[in-house]
Each structure stands twice: as C-alpha cells, then as structure tokens.
Amino acid sequence: MCGILAVFGCIDNSQAKRSRIIELSRRLKHRGPDWSGLHCHGNCYLAHQRLAIVDPASGDQPLYNEDKTVVVTVNGEIYNHKQLRENLKSHQFRTGSDCEVIAHLYEEHGEEFVDMLDGMFSFVLLDTRDQSFIAARDAIGITPLYMGWGLDGSIWFASEMKALSDDCERFISFPPGHIYSSKQGELRRWYNPPWFLEQTPSASYDPIVLRKAFEKAVVKRLMTDVPFGVLLSGGLDSSLVAAVACRYLADSEAACQWGSQLHTFCIGLEKSPDLKAAREVAEYLGTRHHEFHFTVQEGIDALEEVIYHTETFDVTTIRASTPMFLMSRKIKSLGVKMVLSGEGSDEIFGGYLYFHKAPNKEEFHQETCQKIKALHLYDCLRANKSTSAWGVEARVPFLDKEFINIAMNIDPEWKMIRPGRIEKWLLRNAFDDDQKPYLPKHILYRQKEQFSDGVGYSWIDGLKDHANSQVTDSMLSNASFVYPENTPTTKEAYYYRTIFEKFFPKNAARSTVPGGPSVACSTAKAVEWDAEWSKNPDPSGRAALGIHTAAYEEAGDAENGNVLSGSKKVREGIVEKAAAVV
C-alpha cells in the first residue's frame, strides 16, 4: 500500500503551500516508507509515499506518460498490467511499475478505461494540457480514498483522512467503484455488475467453476518483487488462501526470488482458537509458520494508535484491527512487505452466523449485496489500514472482480444454511477434494469464527471490562447529548468514540463512520430476522445465540450490549468444532 495526496485549485501556489503539501503527505509516510514524490503544476499538487512491491528500483511515483503531460499518483496493484501493456505497444514505458499503464490507458481511452483495470487501486490523474483531473477507486473499496473541499475552492484527495482533515471544510469517503471527473464536476459509477441491483440470481452452482475462479484470483496476487506471506487464522477463508497459494507457488515468478515455501502468520492470546487451528493448517500445508502472542493489556495499550490509523470508532472494526495491527508490526520486522488475507468471503457467501436465520433466499441475497457494498467501511478498511500502519500491503483474493461476479450470480438457495449444510457450504464443497485434499476435513468445515473472537474470547471481554473502568453510567446515559450523531449505546463504543474525537474532531470525520444496530456483524435490517437479537445487539459472533458453539450465556449474564454490569462470561473451554457436516 502507498499513500497518495492530491490538491487542485489552490489559490495559494507559493513555496509555503508546497511545504504544507509535503508536511501533510508525510502524515501518510507509514503507508509508503520507501520513497516520497511530489509533482507541482501551477496550483495542482500530486504527492506520493511509496511502498515498493513491484519494480522497487524504478517504479517511484508520481508516474507519467511519454512527454509528462499526464501525471498520475496511484495506491494499489494492477494485476493485469502485463496484458494491458500488450495493447499499448505504441507507448513508451519508463518503468516496470504495474501502475504506469494508467497514464497510457488515459491517453488511449480518455476517462473510460477504469473498468479495464483488474486490481485494487485508488488513483488521481492530472492532464496538464487542459488542467483537468480524474480520481477513481477500485470496485469494492479495498484501497482507501477520501475526497475533500477547502474554503478556497480547492478539491483534495488522500489515502487517509488525517492528510486532509485539517485543511478541508468538508470531506467524505470516496465511494468505491466510482470516478470523479473535473470536466463533469461530479462522481459517477464505473462499476456496474449485475449483482449490484440486488435482483435474485438463478445460475446453477458449479463447484469446479467456483474453485478455478478462486485459484486464479490467488495466483494473480502472487505478483511481487518483495518477500510475502499469508495471514492464517486457521479458519476456512485464510486456510483456503494459504492452501491455494501453496499449491501454485512453486510455478510462480515469486518462487524464483523467494523460494517455494510459503510463510504464514497468526496472532492470538495464549491458547486461543485461532492459534491452535492455524498451527494445524500450517503443519498440514508445510508452510514456514510464524505464531505471535499478545496480551489483553498489550491490545488495550495499542487502542489509541489503532484508532488513529484506522480512522474509525466502529466497535467491530477496532476489536479486530488491534490484533491485526500488532501482528503487522511483527510481520514487517521480519522483512515481509506483502500478505494475502481472507477478507470478503463471509459477505459473498453469507458466512456470518446470523445468516442461519435468513428467512428466504431473496433476503439472504440482498443481505450479501449490502454487506459487499459496505466492505470499504469495515473489513477492507481494517485490513488495509491495520497493515499499512507498518508499511505492509494486504491483498484479498476473495474480492477479485471476476470471482465476485461468478459467486454472486449463483442462485442463493445454494448459499442458504439448511439442516446438514453449514454456512458457506458451497465454498467448502468446492474445495472438498478426496483425491487431492486442500485441507483436513475438520478445518474445511470449521464453524465461522470472527477474527476478534478467534484471537481469544477473553479479548473482547477484556475490552469491555476496560471500557467499564473508563466510562461511567452517567457518561453513557448522557451520550445522546454529547454525541447526538451516531450516538454510542455501549460503554465500549463510548470509549472508542472519545479517542476518535480527540484525533478527528470535525463533523465531517464522524460522518465517515457507519452506525446502526448489528448482531454478529449484520446490517440493521438483518437484526429483524430474530426478535431475540434486538435484546443483545453485540457485533461479536458469540451474540448469535443458539448458533455459535461458544455463544454468550442467554440468561443471567446478558447485558444487552450496554456493558453496565461487567463482561459476559463464556462457557468454560473451547468447544471442538464438528468435522464434516455435508
């Protein structure tokens, strides 16, 4: 991941303004510690902080066309850049960077080229010939981008809110799958897949097609010139990423540089579910496994940094971001700069435990669509910002455009959870190969465990206890007066909000964070699927009462999410997950 900052239409184009742009760009240096670049043209500025993954030697940014009339600053990876170059043979490329194709595609196709890009990206492009500019963000919002407006009429773009919040009167999270054109003066959607309309699809389920599409998505993300690995929690999604990467790594260009043994990484509290499961998967796959431990106190001590970097006060995001933030620091210390991760599968296949209560396939499908559309505010934000805080790039093969289109075109009846059919059954079944197994059966059919739960159940309980000690009953009862917008309803949420407001006090900042009731990561609409859930609005997977094998006790200990009486207790021990259930 890199950090980009672009400013257009400043009244002041003095040396002082240039110095200010450099100062603000440095707030993104954690994202790109390898190089800093700045291009100035009149009252337009394009700054870049580079994390060098592809072509470290010559791919510094900003990037240009042949005569430098087109300038682009990019955060992300373009996986099909070699194929695109084949159609741009009349153009002269200056670097081996995958992102340079953007400048030349613009020359050939104008603004109508973004859908040609296969990758994760946010970019800003300046055409100095007419002073026009465009900005675009990838289909799902894997890479972050913010857009702001200054009182002097300037328009700003930045990878993180902290680089523009002080200088913009208003700013927003740039919507995924959109492009902004200065010529048209508005945002428009460039990504328009069939599933976006949320109409129930009817295609039949073909496990081989689904498997091959995912394998292709993993293989294309092995494009790297630096050491890499896989984040392995031992759950289904990360285990499949690791299994596929192991199977195809030896034939990849990356293996020529870094060897054919895959590195895997996991973090958790001592004796947590994830550590045990990840260790078993790593042994089965033969990876070089790195296991990191943290304590509840170490996590609590990191909360302020986590909130500063993730730029959110969403409870679920902070719970899961903290161990990921701590792990990323360890990973970077080993010299690794890129990791594959398993985000996105639960949204596509209805993997969260609350999907057990979906009343019909139509509502099931609509919920998955809504979850994918909101990924940029939750899991994508977490995965990107928690890792980039330490200069590590996370790639997410489940959010491959082609794979999403195939998976979201399947009749959702196949995704519905039925007796004898566990959540994400069609994905598990696609990789259930007795002849050449990808994973052990009991891992392939392990129950869904949210990352913030899987690192150790006492992690969430410890967070609630800490919030209890910091937030009084009186503070929570007056929360609607202190925070009338997106009012926190629990002491834990209130505590995170106070930290967030310290770093980002503007109304525009708090408006970038989503809100509303949720159980086990559901949307507000899905809370209506079970009347009991409204009494226990906690985003932890354990709030899915009667579904999770280590669910919160339903009586006596229930706090209705308000943590006014100490933390919930979890049933003693970790219940072993069932093996094959098909």
Automatic annotation (TrEMBL):
Species name: Malus domestica (Apple)
GO molecular function, one term: ATP binding
Pfam families: Asn_synthase (PF00733), GATase_7 (PF13537)
Annotated ranges, domain Glutamine amidotransferase type-2: 2-185
Sequence positions that bind ATP: 231, 267, 341-342
Catalytic activity: L-aspartate + L-glutamine + ATP + H2O = L-asparagine + L-glutamate + AMP + diphosphate + H(+)
Protein name (database record): Asparagine synthetase [glutamine-hydrolyzing]
UniProt feature coiled coil, ranges: none
Enzyme class, spelled out: ligase
Pathway in which this enzyme or protein is active: Amino-acid biosynthesis; L-asparagine biosynthesis; L-asparagine from L-aspartate (L-Gln route): step 1/1
One cellular component (GO) term of this entry: cytosol
Entry's EC annotation: 6.3.5.4
Annotated transmembrane regions: none
Binding site for L-glutamine: 98
Active site annotation, chain numbering: 2
Keywords: Amino-acid biosynthesis, Asparagine biosynthesis, ATP-binding, Glutamine amidotransferase, Ligase, Nucleotide-binding
GO biological process: asparagine biosynthetic process; response to stress
InterPro entries in UniProt: Asn_synth_AEB, Asn_synthase, Asn_Synthetase, AsnB_N, GATase_2_dom, Ntn_hydrolases_N, Rossmann-like_a/b/a_fold
